[in-house]
Amino acid sequence: MALKTLQVPSSFARPINRSFIGSSSSSSSSSQFSLRPKPASARLAASVAGERRLECRGGSSLHGCVDEGAAAASRRRQEQAVEIPIVLFPSVVFPGATVQLQAFEFRYRIMVHTLLQEGVTRFGVVYSGGGVGGGVAAGEVGCVAHVVECERLVDGRFFLTCVGGDRFRVVGAVRTKPYVVARVQPLADAPPSQERGGDGGGDMVRHLVERVEEQLKNVAALSDKLGWSRPPLPFRATCSPSSLSFAVAREVVEDREEQQALLRLDDAAARLAREGRYLERRSRYLAAIAAIKDALGGHLYCNDK
Q1: What is the β-pairing status of strands 3-5 and 98-103?
Q2: Three-state secondary structure string covering 45-69
Q3: Is 157:102 a contact under the CB 8 Å cutoff?
Q4: Are residues 79 and 35 in contact, defined by beta-carbon separation less than 8 angstroms?
């Protein structure tokens, strides 16, 4: 495992500020990240060349023509792509999540040291899926991790406290040595008007939010009945539908493959609908366990909590 989650004292875990704190030989930097491309003459030249239009001539099939709108959209996506260091991690990181990591593998020590030297406070995290490969595949979806606190130990390890930022989709690997660097594109949710269309879309999202909240209450009540730890209940007053969907995914959903599937979705309504089905299955499972416990007079021992 390249990085591992830390259990550290609360005094270290608190995000005091947004600065990236390095060793005594490295100055602190409060620079923040944005997914903006660096100007490049080669890219600009390619963009100009790409403006040439291809025309369909008589007898040409539709499949032989280039969709200019799709080509322009592809160029825009390429221009948005940036290079970012990638950490392959055995857990899924979501926007808004606080993650505490220890960088102890040599390649990640080099990565953090390089970030310190460049005054950079972010890297990308991609779910490894339990694999042992050292690369990252195009199309994978991950999350930017913003470093809010860093401590360097005398043996060269780093303790990092990070907050999940924007999601991204991997365009392709740039290199894999000494650590993975990939070109990524920002991945944002589709606007509500485009997700479902008009006021009906807003009504559907509100219905999905209410359904998820109701299922969360059911899961919490059944967990209390069984004496199991209950999931946190996000407050809708402080959560947008998108934020609520990410909070449920990171705090309640336990299956990592399911978490990664939720991270890939670029539609808050689709995430909420999928989470509603997940919570419904979880409620039925807990209800069945509670019924068995009652039938046995309250004597039931189960490790699956």
Answers
A1: antiparallel
A2: HHHHHHCCCCCCCCCCCHHHCCCHH
A3: yes
A4: no
Task: Return d(Cα 93, Cα 100) in angstroms, integer.
Answer: 11
Non-local (6+) Cβ contacts of 74 within 8 A are none
Q: Which two tokens stand for residue 128?
A: 């490894």
271 closest CA partner among 87, 128, 141: 141
Rounded to whole angstroms, the Cα distance separating 231 from 224 reads 10
Q: Note the pLDDT of residue 40.
A: 37
Q: Are 272 and 241 in contact (CB under 8 A)?
A: yes
Would you say residue 185 has pLDDT above 80? yes
User: DSSP string of 140-181?
Assistant: -EEEEEEEEEEEE-TTS-EEEEEEEEEEEEEEEEEE-SSS-E
231's tokens: 């999931």
Query: What phi, psi does 17 have (nearest 5°)?
Result: -155, -175
Question: Residue 75's pLDDT band (boundaries 50, 70, 90)?
Answer: low
At 188, list the tokens: 């944002």
Can you read off the two tokens belonging to residue 265? 């979705």
Radius of gyration of the chain (CA): 23
In this prediction, residue 11 carries a pLDDT of 33
Confidence of residue 226 (pLDDT cuts 50, 70, 90): confident
* 280 vs 262: CA distance, rounded Å: 16
Q: How deeply is 258 buried, as exposed, middle or buried, from its count of CB atoms within 10 A (0-12, 13-18, 19+)?
A: middle
CB 259 within 8 Å of CB 271: no
